[in-house]
Design a protein that fits this description.
By secondary structure, the protein is an alpha+beta fold. It has three helices and ten strands; from the N terminus they run αβββββαβββββα. It starts with 24 loop residues before the first helix and ends with a helix.
């Protein structure tokens, strides 16, 4: 791979050009990395339980899910309500760490202990705290590609 830097004082915005013989996984990975480079991801969330607000480090979250028209996060300390929509969190969280597995759930891939593929047509995700969740059938190809399964 050849890398060049061209300094031009007349340019107002950084311009990155990827030149390749063909589009492959390397080109796609470079493109994704460059486009995500400048984006700031969430580091903490304010979560609520029993009328008490708590600052939760995003790295401590196992999963984010919806239920009863509310959005919850699950950590080692239990479940909390948060005041975000799932689509807002999906856009704001680090794509390398959080993965959408259904219309109603996002998981932290760094908190996954096991991925059970024994059930035909289903994927069961087991977290470090022994809780489990299932990948929606619609998301299975995306999950397999993201996790290299």
């Amino acid at each position: 791979m050849k890398v060049e830097i061209n300094i031009d004082r007349s340019v107002e915005e950084v311009n990155v050009l990827i030149t390749a013989q063909e589009r492959d996984r390397t080109v796609d990975a470079l493109y994704k990395h460059i486009t995500e480079f400048g984006k700031k991801s969430l580091e903490t969330l304010t979560a609520y339980r029993d009328d008490i607000a708590r600052i939760v480090d995003v790295a401590d979250i196992f999963r984010i899910f919806t239920g009863n028209q509310k959005v919850y996060i699950q950590t080692y300390q239990g479940e909390y309500i948060i005041r975000y929509r799932l689509y807002e969190l999906e856009a704001a969280l680090d794509k390398k760490q959080f993965l959408r597995i259904s219309n109603s759930e996002i998981v932290n891939i760094r908190k996954i202990r096991d991925i059970d593929l024994r059930i035909t047509g289903r994927i069961c995700i087991c977290f470090m705290d022994n809780t489990q969740t299932y990948v929606s059938r619609r998301y299975i190809p995306k999950i397999k590609k993201s996790l290299g399964i």
